[in-house]
Design goal:
Pfam families: DUF454. Helices cover 69% and strands 3% of the residues. The chain has 131 residues and is mainly alpha-helical. Helix 1 packs antiparallel against helix 2 and helix 2 runs antiparallel to helix 3. The N and C termini lie far apart (53 Å).
């Protein structure tokens, strides 16, 4: 089970890193999933993830109760519903499964939107070097 969680965590990190540069891919949810997977499977990878200088702040902000950036929330909900609509209308022929997917999507959307939104004033800004 630890191997499966480590693989899932690593895939989530890869998707989270891609989300930094790709506008339609959310970063924070994937990094939170990776942290959860690593916390159950590998102390070394978990520590590496939460102390990483590039994306450790995403997890730190969420764990500190500061929330998720608005861009990440909007992107997560948008990607969720685009993929759900494509699946519901073009892949799944059974109406009962379509309704189930719609219900799950509504619950996930509600969960994402209930999370506190990280305010720009709470994001530490890098000090500008003056020479």
């Amino acid at each position: 089970m630890k191997t499966v969680l480590t693989i899932c965590g690593s895939l989530s990190v890869a998707l989270g890193v891609l989300g930094i540069v790709l506008p339609l891919l959310p970063t924070t949810p994937f990094l939170l999933l990776a942290a959860a997977c690593y916390a159950k499977s590998s102390d070394r990878l978990y520590h590496w993830l939460i102390t990483n200088k590039h994306f450790g702040s995403y997890i730190e902000n969420y764990r500190a109760g500061k929330g998720i950036p608005l861009k990440a929330k909007v992107t997560a909900v948008l990607v969720l519903w685009v993929s759900l609509f494509l699946t519901i209308f073009f892949v799944i022929p059974l109406a009962s499964v379509q309704w189930l997917l719609f219900f799950i999507g509504a619950c996930v959307t509600g969960f994402i939107l209930k999370q506190k939104t990280l305010q720009l004033s709470e994001v530490p800004h890098r000090k500008q070097q003056t020479e």
